[in-house]
Amino acid sequence: MTLTAVVTVEDLLTKIDSVFGNVTSSVTTDGKIMVVDNTSGSVLDVEIAVKDNGGAADNTLNFDDDDDLGVTGTLRSREVVAGEDASIVVDGVTVTDSSNTITDVIAGVTLNLVGEDGAAEDTTITVKVERDLVAVKAKITDMKDAFNTIIDYINTQFTYDDENEEVGGILFGDGTLSSVKSELINTVTKQITGLPSGYDYLSLIGITLDLTDAVEGKYDSMNLAIDDDKLTDALETNFNDVRNLFIAYGSGSSPNLTYISHTNDTQGGSYTVDITQAATQGTTTGSAAAVDLTSDETLTIEDFATGRVATVSLTSGSDLDTVINAINSELAREYTQKIVGENDTGKTSSTLFSSVTGADEGDVITFTGTRGNGLSVSGSYTVDRTKTIGDLLNTIEDTFENEVTVAISGGKIVITDKSAGDSQLSFTIDTSSIGADLNFGDVDVDPAGADGSQEGRYAMTTTASKTGSNELLLTHNTYGTGQRAIVTETGGTALKLTSPVYDWGKNVAGTINGITATGSGQSLTVDSDGNNADGLSISYTGTTTLTSATFSFALGVAELLDRQLGFITDANDGYVTYKQTSLKNSIDSFETQIEDMQASLNRKMEMMINRFVAMELALAKIQNQSQWLAGQISASLSGWAGL
Question: What's the pTM?
Fold first, then answer.
């Protein structure tokens, strides 16, 4: 970068960050520039040379106090310190990790590494892991409380107030609800098969029905109660059997058969298992024994299933063990996606828009792209000639919800995902409104990586080793069809991978309870309506076929209660939904009957009114006739009287 009167130390630090990528630059309290590589296990080598305008080297760079450097900074000397992965030994196994928080060594345990014992490298720290019985008992208490709540609700529905002649709920006397109550009580009092005596009933571990309100042989509440001392003793004495009393679990006659999962359609029982094909891993093998490299070589390894690609640079003279270590180190790395513009605009983030040819006040720059997770983004920036290009970069970062960093490096725009791993990060910017002076060109990943761009990826699920015949062997860590590493060897043929031997992985195949199961890797799953094993998924880790093995599957109390409550509360076809629909249909039917009866009454009323009107008309007519007859009779009498 060119040092001018307006260039600050912060500008220099920003420049270093953008040039080297995943680094963090800062100034120490004693005025030294410190550059930290954020990629674990790598060695960062930074050298800063300062020259005057005539080209003569001047290894000393002085800053004013306004630059917040604290003291005069000298760049004459530098210290290179290699970053290292965390390394610990657990039960004799060395574990390395790019983070000081390790979660995948001991199941359910997080190890936070806060430092090393510098006085004694062989210091042993014992980590004691104990079960949290208080938390376990709290879960059991939650189950008990939930059970009692629904029993109390059902009991309320069945109450009757003799004095006021009122029922407790709209489901009073409902036979199905009464059956539900009976099923719930039967569930918490039944024997769970497959468990040793002493642990096959809830009552044996201190969970019983409270019958203290029994009156005349009637037990109204039927709530669960817990004897804490007895439950604690059972958990401390035989935790696994207590656990199995509650959950769904399975075990096979072969140690290679293990339980994975089930569905609500899976019934408890003992099932016959036949394995006709053991699962295998995909492998890629050199066509002959490898020899020491006689030239620098490059291996390109692609995961067929995920499309992830690793490039491994190998040095001449390396033996096979060195090659294997280099491959595994590269395959274990994770990379952050970095996309770079193709054009050098000659600008920096501190360039004012007033110095950009064609940039007028109010011009609009538009951009679109996708975030790392594939969600689309779009935005725009309105040119303010008093602002810098850095203001545009900040707007882009905001549009990406600060999931990326945006910088200018060597005149090119650089967009870096903040999270390592597979990424769909993309970006397109349209600066045509201000002309060609700020044309970044296409922004993407250069396959050759010559511009510093990088395809993001997670660690690859392949492991390098060697066969007994000294051939290089690449084994996909995942079992099953479609799992394989595709490899290309360039620069030499010492590894014999120019024509590798490929072997596709295979899924396990077999039957469960007489039904052909679906294999995926090492797991077998039954999908057959009406079969008791429907929905059962088990794992087979053996390497040979298996005939007439058995797999026992049992449903514990909590699992059975969950199914019962699911039957009651399922939004689609549960008992409550069914009852609500039934009652609604009954109400609708009654309303329809009322409407029909009202219409019938209206028709009858109309008919009666019409008859009444007709009667009134008839009476009026009769009255008129009566009056006419009376007149005629009166006239006749008057005429007869004159004779």
Answer: 0.65
